[in-house]
Q: What sequence folds into this?
């Protein structure tokens, strides 16, 4: 029996992407199909290198070929990715997706989450950048061990000066903390602060990025409005802690993105400090701030719940030492942040596909 391309593609048309609700052939995810007798090889092109379903889709493809084409076929699959972007993303076109990390309240670990999300996305092969837009309390210089660091600059052919982001752990970084004395307050009014943040987007040499994570300041003020109305945003991630005093403010922060004048997709809710677990007893969970507050918040707004992050000493140690905990592959937190980053990338891909497949 001679195996043809048509037979293999027909078999693979039975494999559906659970998120995009279309089969892989219709989605044009099957590339470079080659057949040599019973040896079949092709590339499966996913929508993100952080796809949490990659193993499931790979196994489904193998099973489909063996079931519909030939049981004794040898199937080799190379997995790559081509990160999608919002349909209306024309400004800053080299940056495919801008993801805002917001809380509505300070002290919930938003910067920790933003930093470790960026680390996890980069570790999965995504071209990743991180902007620390918290002008009054920038944390990125400390969390990446870059206190006192100063970005360089370069001149373009048309005479424009561009800021060069600092690169560390495979991430391009810019923070307003790089441009201010860490011991001095920044008493800037709203318009001055907003203009400074816009420069981090417009006047920096970001190159090509799959994801640009933006660590927003607490609250729902000028900087939030400036960013959401000035740039094409792929979505927002909401960080909260379980207790009611945090949830009350976070609820307002989440509602801001749904306002008609802003209308930014909410990718989901992350519950930080969900419970305390000792490093030496990872099975023990102590819900010292309450339980399931973030999950209930997500359900009440009809948005995904992306996961829980416990209170673990290594998170604090990683941030203080300039090495976010997601870098430590021996820590259970690395897997936790990797899973959450995959879910964030997954929601971005789903939102990006909706205008295309809405018909």
A:
């Amino acid at each position: 029996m001679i195996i043809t391309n048509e037979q293999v593609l027909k078999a693979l048309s039975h494999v559906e992407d659970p998120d995009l609700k279309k089969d892989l052939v219709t989605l044009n995810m099957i590339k470079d199909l080659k057949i040599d007798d019973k040896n079949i090889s092709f590339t499966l092109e996913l929508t993100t290198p952080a796809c949490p379903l990659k193993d499931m889709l790979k196994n489904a493809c193998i099973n489909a070929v063996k079931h519909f084409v030939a049981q004794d076929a040898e199937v080799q699959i190379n997995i790559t990715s081509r990160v999608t972007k919002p349909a209306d993303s024309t400004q800053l076109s080299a940056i495919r997706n801008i993801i805002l990390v917001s809380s509505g309240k300070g002290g919930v670990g938003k910067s920790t989450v933003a930093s470790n999300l960026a680390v996890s996305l980069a570790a999965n092969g995504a071209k990743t950048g991180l902007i620390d837009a918290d002008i009054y309390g920038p944390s990125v210089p400390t969390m990446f061990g870059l206190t006192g660091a100063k970005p360089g600059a370069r001149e373009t052919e048309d005479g424009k000066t561009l800021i060069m982001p600092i690169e560390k752990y495979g991430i391009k970084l810019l923070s307003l903390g790089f441009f201010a004395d860490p011991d001095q307050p920044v008493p800037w009014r709203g318009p001055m602060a907003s203009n400074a943040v816009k420069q981090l987007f417009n006047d920096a040499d970001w190159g090509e990025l799959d994801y640009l994570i933006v660590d927003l300041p607490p609250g729902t003020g000028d900087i939030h409005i400036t960013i959401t109305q000035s740039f094409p945003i792929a979505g927002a991630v909401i960080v909260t802690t379980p207790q009611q005093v945090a949830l009350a403010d976070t609820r307002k922060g989440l509602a801001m993105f749904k306002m008609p004048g802003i209308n930014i997709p909410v990718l989901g809710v992350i519950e930080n400090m969900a419970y305390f677990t000792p490093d030496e007893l990872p099975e023990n969970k102590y819900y010292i701030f309450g339980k399931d507050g973030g999950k209930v918040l997500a359900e009440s707004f009809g948005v995904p719940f992306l996961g829980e992050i416990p209170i673990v000493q290594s998170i604090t140690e990683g941030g203080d030492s300039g090495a976010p905990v997601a870098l430590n592959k021996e820590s259970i937190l690395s897997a936790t942040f990797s899973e959450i980053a995959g879910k964030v990338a997954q929601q971005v891909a789903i939102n990006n596909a909706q205008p295309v497949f809405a018909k």
